Amino acid sequence: MTPVPGERASGTGCSIVGVGTTEYSRASGRTALALATEASLRALDDAGIKAAEVDGIVRCTDDVVLHNDLIETLALPNVEFWAHGGLGGTAPSAMIGYAVNAIRSGSAKVVLAYRSLNGRSGRRVGAGYGSQQAVVAGGEEGGRYDEYFLPYGLTTAGQMYALIAQRHMTEFGTTREQLGHIAMTCRRNAQSNPAAQMYGRPMTMDDYFNARMISSPLGLFDYSLETDGACAVVVTSTEQGRDSKTAPIAIAAVAQGGSAGVQAGRTLSSLMRKDLLTFPSHLVAENLYRRANLGPSDIDVAQLYDCFTITVLVQLEDYGFCVKGEGGPFAASGALDTTLPINTSGGHLSEAYMHGMNHVVEGVRQLRGESTRPVPGAEVCLVSSGAPPATSAMILTVDR
Amino acid sequence: MAQTPPRPTPCTTDPDTAGFWAAAQQEQLVVLTCRQCRSVVHLPRPRCTQCGSEEMEWTVVSGRGHLYSHTVVYHQIHPAFPVPYTVVLVSLEEYPEVRYTGYLPGAPDLVAGVAMNVFFESLDGVSLPNWRSA
Ligand SMILES: [Zn+2]
Question: B59 alpha carbon to ligand 1 midpoint, in Å?
């Protein structure tokens, strides 16, 4: 389970030294900027680093909070590097990668990455694509192809994943019960995490099956939550991180992966790729394992992007934990609670929907031994970011 | 109860996809193909993704296909689409790797692989290719 010391690649030389989150709620009553500021200050406090030392900022392309805004609220005197990275859920690991590259190239020393959204009380995450008032769909600068989807009532990521799940069932015999095991694992993990939105709300397989259908074959509990809140992460060199308040968690490797055939556009156009049941996560996994000199059997715990249960199931295949088509039986085998514990804070399905950034935070807490659902002896954690567009992932390890 | 607003119509003036909608106006279903290497380029791109040629043309297909996947939407999101309704993905008979989308009201009995035929419906004067079981 644990790799022999010396087998790992030397890593990126950078670490996550601080993590911070706000409360997760359905109605924050605050601006996304206020949330981002609070999460950032908490992350800096966690690291024992003064805000004034932050000289780099990485923002998700979809965030309403601009780097400029955060520079003001945190009163940063000299920010020398900023970057805007990635579409929604595909961004978080890549964002950490930009921080690493900025530090390694000497562009910055202390980089803050954040995701902040009023995903329930503001523009709801589940509202889908395109304006509901628009009379004409698509054609916006080309490359999005909404005209092939929206006029047919295909307007949300959930409906797209439903089509993927249905096809996975047709080709591989995957069942709803197998998807239910993924939902149950996340829900169980949330029961030990008081910060989780689903804390105190355990779920049985009967509950899963009795929930209303949203877009067949996906029901209510195949869907992630919608959340108001923010997460922030502080990245420095590992050397600098060894002076910080808490043990640095090493970024062994970060990878992005995109290739022709994945299909351009944002999300819905992924339905037109030749192999619908393989995500770019497959390519990311290759790049990531090569860079880290690790493989799936070295992963002690995984925080897998879980906008929907089917997203996890396909990633189990793409990241090599089982062969293509076997994600269903693997999910139902109990492995997700034993040999490959996943989403130990509850993930998007049961902790909060922070567009993949709460997975980064939990990866760090898990390796520090601070998780509310600790995995004994865990030293290597996979953190994956979203699908189905070109995406990113990373491997975190304890520093030694 | 609020009236159901009209379904959004496709943009027909995007230079990369306009040919698809122009053909639909003539009740023809087309795919974009490369004049040089004959590859199909789907979704349509401004150049051939196989050989790089910019000499592309729209090729008419039969309008026959098979159901690749479908979902019945039960949760109301977009006001123009009252639930339940069904979204289908259809793979073309001539080019099985090419899929198009379709919309059916209600929750008809559908099984993957069944034969589907294209038909054209008018949305505010724009002809929209759509699919039903053969
Ligand atoms: Zn060509």
Answer: 14
Q: What is the mean pLDDT of chain B?
A: 95
B133: closest CA of chain A, how far (Å):
16
Sign of CA dihedral B93, B94, B100, B103: negative
Question: What is the rounded distance in angstroms from the CA atom of residue A207 to the CA atom of residue A253?
Answer: 39
**pLDDT at site A58:** 98
Superfamily of domain A14-123+223-398 in the CATH hierarchy: Thiolase/Chalcone synthase (3.40.47.10)
Q: Kindly determine whether residue A152 and residue B102, on different chains, have CB atoms separated by under 8 Å.
A: yes
Please provide the size of chain B in residues. 134
Q: Which residues of B touch A264 (CB under 8 A)?
A: 43, 45
Query: Which pLDDT score is estimated for A8?
Result: 60
- Predicted confidence (pLDDT) per residue in B62-86, tens digit: 999 999 999 999 999 999 999 999 9
- B69 and A214 within 8 Å at the Cβ level: the answer is no
Domain boundaries along the sequence of chain A: 14-123+223-398
Give the pLDDT score at A261.
Answer: 86
Over the stretch A194-234, which tens digit does the pLDDT of each residue have?
Answer: 999 999 999 999 999 999 999 999 999 999 999 999 999 99
The pLDDT value given to residue A130: 74
DSSP state of A143: S
- Contact between A118 and A125 (Cβ < 8 Å): no
CB contact under 8 A, B101 and A149: yes
Nearest to A194, CA basis, from A351, A37, A377: A351
The pLDDT of residue B47: 94
Across chain B, where does the E strand assignment appear?
A: 9-10, 29-34, 56-61, 64-73, 85-92, 99-105, 115-123, 126-133
Contact criterion met (CB < 8 Å) for B16 and A142:
yes
How far is ligand 1, taken at its centre, from the CA of residue B20, in Å?
18
Residue B61: other Cβ atoms inside 10 A: 20
- Band of the pLDDT at A1, cuts 50, 70, 90? very low
Residues of chain B neighbouring A216 (CB-CB closer than 8 A): 71-72, 74
Residue A155, burial from CB neighbour count under 10 angstroms (0-12, 13-18, 19+): buried
